[in-house]
Amino acid sequence: MSETVFNNWQSIHDEVLRRIHVRQWKPGDQIPNEADLARQFCCSRSTVNRALQSLADAGFLERRRKAGTRVATHPVRKATLDIPVIRNEIAGRGHEYAYNLLDRFEQKPPPDIAARMKSGDRPLLHLRAMHMADGRPYVMETRWVDPGAVPGIENADFSGVSANEWLVENVPFTGGDIAFSAMAAGESEAGHLDCETGTGLFVIERSTWKGEAAITFVRLTFAPGYRMHTLI
Amino acid sequence: MSETVFNNWQSIHDEVLRRIHVRQWKPGDQIPNEADLARQFCCSRSTVNRALQSLADAGFLERRRKAGTRVATHPVRKATLDIPVIRNEIAGRGHEYAYNLLDRFEQKPPPDIAARMKSGDRPLLHLRAMHMADGRPYVMETRWVDPGAVPGIENADFSGVSANEWLVENVPFTGGDIAFSAMAAGESEAGHLDCETGTGLFVIERSTWKGEAAITFVRLTFAPGYRMHTLI
DNA sequence: AAGTGGTCTAGACCACGTC
DNA sequence: ACGTGGTCTAGACCACTTT
């Protein structure tokens, strides 16, 4: 015999979600206001507020002052992806991690990169490297770094530690963007990732900035079969 | 002349983030406890708590009772992706949406699908459809639905409304998982998506559950050039 | 055992947006 | 104008985990 009691915000969260799932409250419906729910659940309004905010964050509710709280009509599901450091991702899967630098030189980047990084005519540092799992290619990293935004990078040694880890350690960033896409393996990818040309490859591109200044742009081209996975 | 005052949790959030960015608090460092920060910021502990929880959610801080709050060592960046209904995604980009059903039949699914959906030997409803933007192929949808989990689906008409929207309207789900990957276009994809075979295509696969029962599995194969994008 | 975050409460005031 | 959510406060108790 178990009586449900609502003595913490999680239990209220779950109960509200249950009512949505059993369609007691349907998409588009306005639900009671916080004060009423607090009376229903015999708790304070702050606790109800905590629960409803959490549900709104997750996309189940839409809240507006005065207009009240409604069940979201278009369940825009938000998937939260973890973007780990590659070393940890590989180690976390129980494989042995290895890293090796392919190229490192400074040069004027192609126009699309220069545009993304707002670097104008300045030369950027270009790096290419492979990350390996148990000796097999895991991902190829192609990176551009603005040396102007990253003092000290000329003397950094990327033969042993990846640029990613060095940057994380040494250059705090304030924002960025990330994009996921697909490409077909060309000659270069096929060679480095040990696959046929024309194989579908998963690609992550990420730019990071510090304030207004672009720090780095990186393209990660994963070996065939890579999947990025999360619960919703 | 502007004096920064800390009278709401956002201002404290920003100040803590600033201290992390200027490396006053470095990765791995333990920061003062909530009571001390409350005194520093001249506010109540609850307000500090709200700010730090928010930073912990975003992955900037790691908090453990008794052990205190530390700046995250490996900024596992969490990217939050919105997964919209395709109609809205296309309409939101200012294109005209169209939908058409390719196939619909009931049959025993291939073993990998049966395993994912734990459907055993039961036949499942199979659907294939195209979503078009301004008359051009946008994404191909391949779907399996367990009719046992979705009463009434036999009579649903998917020639005008997509299975996705019908399911969202009619079958509440409690959870699921989503995976992103890449594939090379085969004959079938090339035909339907109007591209060459061997083009790299972006793929989203999603399963949804109601409690323990699998409702549906869908594979969305996007036309070339599709990018999924978000800020971090 | 003791220090830290997690949460609840009751009351208050405010900001916003709809009416 | 007024109803709603957003937030703050001060104090309290509890849960967890490290010492």
Tell me what the structure shows.
The structure is a homodimer of 232-residue chains. The first copy, chain A, has 232 residues and is α+β, with helices and mostly antiparallel strands. Helices cover 27% and strands 36% of the residues of chain A. Chain A is built from seven helices and eleven strands. Chain A has a six-stranded antiparallel beta sheet. In chain A, strands 1-3-2 form a three-stranded antiparallel beta sheet. In chain A, α1 crosses α3 (45-57). The radius of gyration of chain A is 24 Å and the shape is elongated. Chain A starts with 8 loop residues before the first helix and ends with a strand. The relative contact order of chain A is 0.11. Chains A and B meet through β4, β8, β9 and β11 of A and β4, β8, β9 and β11 of B. Chain A binds a DNA duplex (19 and 19 nucleotides) through residues 7-9, 33-35, 43-47, 49-50, 52-53, 63-69.
Percent strand of chain A equals 35-45%
Shape of chain A: elongated
Summed over residues and divided by their number, the pLDDT of chain A gives a mean of: 92
Uncertain regions spanning at least 5 consecutive residues of chain A = none
* Number of extended strands of chain A: 11
Structural class of chain A: alpha+beta
- List the quaternary state of the chains: homodimer
Order of helices and strands of chain A: HEHHEEEHEHEEHEHEEE
Main sheet characteristics of chain A: 6 strands, antiparallel
Number of helices of chain A: 7
Biggest protein-protein interface? A-B, 50 and 51 residues
Sheet with most strands: strand arrangement of chain A: 5-6-7-10-9-8
What is the distance, rounded to the nearest whole angstrom, between the alpha carbons of the first and last residues of chain A? Answer: 32 Å
- What percent of the residues of chain A sit in helical stretches (DSSP H or I)? 25-40%
The radius of gyration of chain A is 24 Å
